[in-house]
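ok so i was messing around last nite and threw this chain in just to see what happens. nothing serious, just curious
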Amino acid sequence: MLKPIIILVTIGAIGLVGYSVFAQKDEPTQISETVLLINDANKSVEDADLSIEKANSSFQKMPLNGYKPDNRNLQASQ
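result:
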């Protein structure tokens, strides 16, 4: 009767030690993956900001009084 209990306790202890060893190795990997994802997101935001700045600078600046709409095709609503 004592032998099966000793076997179960031994298997449980081995499982607990194995779990603690493997669980500690996974945490730094998850942290580094999270840091990489955050860095990729920050890089994407910086790239988007740069492209928006380029697009804004490419538009020709025109004063509002220089804008003349084409009124020939406009009709008044009744």
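not much to say yet. The chain has one helix and no strands.
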